[in-house]
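Q: Okay, next protein. This is Coronin from Takifugu rubripes. I've checked the sequence twice, so it should be correct. Can you predict the 3D structure?
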Amino acid sequence: MMRRVVRQSKFRHVFGQAVRNDQCYDDIRVSRVTWDSSFCAVNPKFVAIIIDASGGGAFIVLPLQKTGRIDKAYPTVCGHTGPVLDIDWCPHNDQVIASGSEDCTVMVWQIPENGLETPLSEPVVVLEGHSKRVGIVSWHPTARNVLLSAGCDNQIIIWNVGTGEAVINLEDMHPDVIFSVSWSRNGSLLCTACKDKKVRVIDPRKQKIVAEKDKAHEGARPMRAIFLADGNIFTTGFSRMSERQLALWKTDSMDEPICVQEMDSSNGVLLPFYDPDTNIVYLCGKGDSSIRYFEITDEAPFVHYLNTFSTKEPQRGMGYMPKRGLDVNKCEIARFYKLHERKCEPIIMTVPRKSDLFQDDLYPDTAGPDPALEAEEWFAGKNGGPILISLKDGYVSTKNRDLKVVKTNVLETKPATKAESVPTVQKHVSPAPSAKMEDKLEEVLREFKSLRDRVILQDRRIARLEEQVAKVAL
């Protein structure tokens, strides 16, 4: 008899563990909207969660360390007039987040350094161009201030957020609802999954379809498609018999998949989360109580099942932490933020190692927060791969610049030069009294602006209610 040889992989023993109860975020009214987005976005500073809100749409932004029970009166980001459907943190500024809503708008917000102290109702910029609800927002991975949005009007718009303009509009490519959009590693191509069962690879700047596959998955339920680091495409969907499937495709020849695997007959849509550094795909099904993970390699069967992490509670949504937010000292290779009905529970994935030294094989250089290109360069046709950073000494974030929208310039100033690093040296010098006064004045002005915004919102609401009362009286 031949012995079956077990495939060697350093990720065979990835160990998932939910944190203790006191490290969860409790008493959060997670959104009940029937839309297949993850409802949660995470970065090394904040966790943002779409919540149930009366009289419009809102999401809550919590500093990572603010665990425990969240007060019902905790301030929210509440500028949309319809439910929020998707949110995405900017990869180049940890205080900037974009949101798409049923009110057909995309809004970009600047979150204060230490989180919200008062409700935030004034976005930095409102992007208007969709005629139906906006279900997908996604930042460009390497170009500063480039944001993509996809709506139920079946069109994709790519914005230059720095000028507030819609620069590219892909409106005749999808005859039906777009289920997912994914940027390639350097952001030169898009990969979309549509209700017409086609997966398309699109060059957005040339506005043409480079490749497409009809009936990538034959089932009628929603599909997802994401780009992998090597340019291949990973898809999840349903078979004709409504079994959940995953598949791997080559972009240059999409006639036949590299591989297809049947999974189970559950009906929850599978949300894929991909780590380009380790080539692991994590699949989280909406309504499931498990996270399955697979390693993608060049050898058959190409998509290797690793393990399943299971809990008792089903998940309403899921957030995924970027690599630079992980604890390298604990050999943490992924962290998820699982949404329950009333709370958010972090789940930590580690590879157990005996050594306390930095594990180079688990942490190759990863994408850092610095953009490779400015928006204008990308729109002009330039490409740039992500600027990589080492996690050896633990990632230390640089100070984020304030987000500004101007008509002719980009969101933020050019990347800091060496001369600009002087203020970090002066941190220990006691500031002059005038600086303290300026800070105090700024704080008062911020509070005043916040109160004024709240009064304006209440006025609008009163006007709406008066109109409704008048109609009922008639």
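A: Here is a summary of the prediction. Residues 412-433 have pLDDT under 50 and may be disordered. Residues 14 and 351 are 5 Å apart (CA to CA).
Q: Noted. On to the next one.
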